[in-house]
Amino acid sequence: MFPKSILNYNNTNTAVILPNGDKFSYGDLQSYSKKIYQKINNRCLVFCLSKNHIGSLCGYISFLSNKVVCLLLDSSISPELIEPLINKYKPQYLWLPIERVDLSKFGKPAFRLLEHTLLKTDFDNKIKLNKNLALLLTTSGSLGSPKLVRLSYQNILSNAISIADYLSIDKNERPITLLPIHYSFGLSIINSHLIKGATILLNDFSLMNKGFWEFLKNYQSTSLSGVPYSFEILKKLRFFKLYFPYLRTITQAGGKLNDELISEFAYFCQKNDKRFFVMYGQTEASPRISYLPYEYSTLKLGSIGIAIPGGKLSLINDQGKVIKRDETIGELVYEGPNVSMGYAFDCNDLAKNDENNGVLLTGDIARRDKDSFYYIVGRKKRFIKLYGNRINLDETERLLKNMIPDVACTGKDDNMIIYITEKKYLNKISSFISEKIGINSNAFIIKLIENIPKNTSGKTIYSELPN
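Request: output the structure for the sequence above.
Response:
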């Protein structure tokens, strides 16, 4: 059972190292976990506002290990976005960094530890929770959507084991965190290393911060993981000219990296005896679905690879029938024990059983080559990924319409195009949406047009928007 397996309490390795040099053993994590749970002492729902900090990590471990259902959120989420979530899901507690004093109106302080506070809300504990429900994650960055992914203990454990398997993770690994804990990719790095007794370099610096590189060098990180935007920054920082003999593995997920960058990083790794893995996943799969073995990083350029251990990939046509012929386009389907239980839209959904039964229709259009390697060629739904965050374009429009009456959103990975019809909003849109969803304003292109094309029922005709 996963709560007993997330930490190897008998492991003599250091579990976490912070940039300031502070170290925490696996026993320390267990001790803090117990202290936090003693203040809750029942199975309930907790909102965990997290950042890459030891207090957030210990909260997550405590909740998971003690069967407290946890919703992980960005610690910087705005009050107007978290309030609807609190009202819909009625958590019994909030676990948050002490600087989020603005959220104290939602509860009374019950406990303080590691620069985090446990707030007891006024909601009772009558919410029914499915016995297998372990974790809730958002699907759309920080948009405040009530739609959450329901993950079971089996989902999380099976995916962590699979990732550790194909990456050959052991207790000697030292991953440095570049991605946030609340982001499913970042969380999977934490999980897959904790189960192997590795040492996590828990970092909250960006790639542009000198502190990140000092931390990586001082404690000799063995792996680095990022989203497409991370690799664009690495190239600008002349990463290929830097010398890190101990850095053995580089992994990429969170959206499609362009083929030119894949080639450059793959060549660099091959030349310097390192491994470069291109990976694909969705939060609904806890989150890893496939990986491209590093030996094929140039031979199968642009491929998302093969299914993770224990999983299966296939393609279906518009009628839902399995496509057996190679080089035929269809919707990508994944099957495996890491497929989530389904979605939740309010607290009543937390009692639901598994609705997916191990099968996930990804919404991505793909093809399979003669060697059974898969390639994404498009998307079936209106989602894009901005710097690794999957963003629902329809929900972005809904958020923007709080300040502007008519707006339309389109785009591709790492670039969202926002169409408006009123000039007075031209210089306000980027900063507004950037602040709301926590994405750099460089990801947004604002276009002023005369009219947003609509059909007779008033729905936007996206195909008629100017390029």
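The chain is about 25% helix and 25% strand.
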